[in-house]
Amino acid sequence: MKHLQKILCAIVLALFFGFFSFATPSFSSFSSIAHAQTLPEISLSISPPHAEILLQPGKSIVQAFNIKNTGSADLEVTPFLADFTVDSTGTPTVHIEKPSSFLFATLQNLDKTLGVPFVLSAGKSDQLVLRIHIPETSQERDYYQTLVLQAKPSSLTMLTQTTNSQSLANVGVHMLISISKTGADLGELTIEKLIKPFILDSFMPLRLQIFAKNTGKTYTKAQGEVTIRSLITNRIVTVFPILRENVLAGGVRELHAAIKDPDDEKSSIADVFIYHPLFLFGPYEIRIDVHAENQQPSPVVFHVWALPFTLFAVGGMGYAILLWKRKRERKFEENL
Amino acid sequence: MKKFMKNKKFATVFPIAVALFFGAMFLMIPKAHGFMSSADYMIQFGNINMTSGTKTGGPYKITDTVGQTAPGRYGTTGYLVRAGFQYIYTIGTFSFSLSNYRIDFGLLSTNTFATATTGVTVSAKGAGGYIVTAYENAPLTKLGTAATIPNTTCNSGSCTYGTVGVWTDATKNGFGYTLSGNDIPAAFVDTTYFKPFADFSQNQPGQVIMSNAASGKNRYAVVTYKISVSGSQAAGDYENHIVYIATPGY
Q1: Do both A141 and A232 map to the same domain?
Q2: Cross-chain residue pair B128–A245, CB shorter than 8 Å
Q3: Which residue from A289, B37, B153, B233 could staple onto B56, CB 3.0 to 4.6 Å apart?
Q4: Which of A91, A119, A167, A182 to mutate to test the interface with B (most CBs of B within 10 A)?
Q5: Given a cut of 50, is residue B33 above it in pLDDT?
Q6: Residue A271 within any structural domain of the chain
Q7: How confident is the model at residue B248 (pLDDT cuts 50, 70, 90)?
Q8: Is residue B148 pLDDT above 90, yes or no?
């Protein structure tokens, strides 16, 4: 009986102190929670993801962008315009560090201004209504702009007594703005660089990389196709339509083949120019026709040879082994 | 007739009847429709000659309403707007997420690595590919001083913001990052390969950390930051900012 009383007493005490320890945050548990907590993520979405605007001097347009804070933290969002440029492969760089060269855009929202932060609560959507007004006296030219949303948590607190890096998220959409009196596509495409084999193994894929340069005055959409013809059978073995990607005025861009989007039959997606049948053999004629909308096609034609080097190598090795075996057999016979 | 006109009931009913008649006529005339909205109202424009678009959200000063967020293209004299991509039928949404935006290395021990990670997620379905670049505003700098933790040069002493190198030796002090996951540069063969962030204060251009020419949904990569300090590093709190820029294709 005494034992039972002791056991019950011990259980009651254990429960009491157990509850007490849960109810009172000790320093050690508090500090470990502080380090282990998961920070809310910065998450922003924007649509449409791209805009092309062609307008005459003196005209105005309005483009609306839908934005949403899809994360779990309230965000302080600063919208602004920045220039973007491309490198020798067409990779864009957004120059968020310096003011935009495009001075003809304002936000039409009464409660928002470019360059001034506003709070976008977690899970909330909003709309940025961008008005572009081109003065009558403006020169005809292209502006390549990015509407950037710089986001940081609105409750961001600085850490002390620790070494740390803070991340700043910038989400942008590119806008190609063309000021033109006639609206004509003045793009002119030339092949700036072509990476191609001259001769390749019959079992290897035929891979091409095509870089187009726009020497014209306005951005343009690359169009045309790449045709591969076997000169043995004189038949076209494959045709790659070129994806209608924009090439900026004065810029270079690596082009892609267009293939059907498996998720959306009406859309195309980018693919590489690779022809990879089981076996290539002999000379192939490759014809690359890349041109702008208002440009006469002037195709580039060259030849690539495919030979079964792997078979030659395997055959050669087999022959060498055979010779070595025969030699060995002869030696063996001579010794006998 | 005059009697009718003088009749009080007639004087009240007649204007109402006229108003109802013209109201009904107005309703019967087929017309373009649309909507706009804020938290309290919504008005939408359909294909009205001079204007088209869907504007929702906060208050606006609408002086002219020409633009669109709907798929396709339209144009009238003097302007043309295309939203989305010509080769993509559906206009998509571009989204970008950063988890663990505050990288806390805590208290550092000398010649010992400390690491932390950030998850980067990009959805660019219907956005013609994407690119994410990153750079630091400056090396990790001690608050209120000019003392810095240098950027890593890796084991060999030769990795830069443009070239990766193996970094496994904690006595080679510095701060750098590696990448794993989708659409990362091929140079990051495995997570022993590191490089420093491009330093904006030295005019170094931001470097690509994720990219894809094709569309993608929920593409995910992990940025692992690594730091080690020498025994001669001045004690104190060091900070910098890592700037991420995510954009869809153009």
Answers
A1: no
A2: yes
A3: B37
A4: A167
A5: no
A6: yes
A7: very high
A8: yes
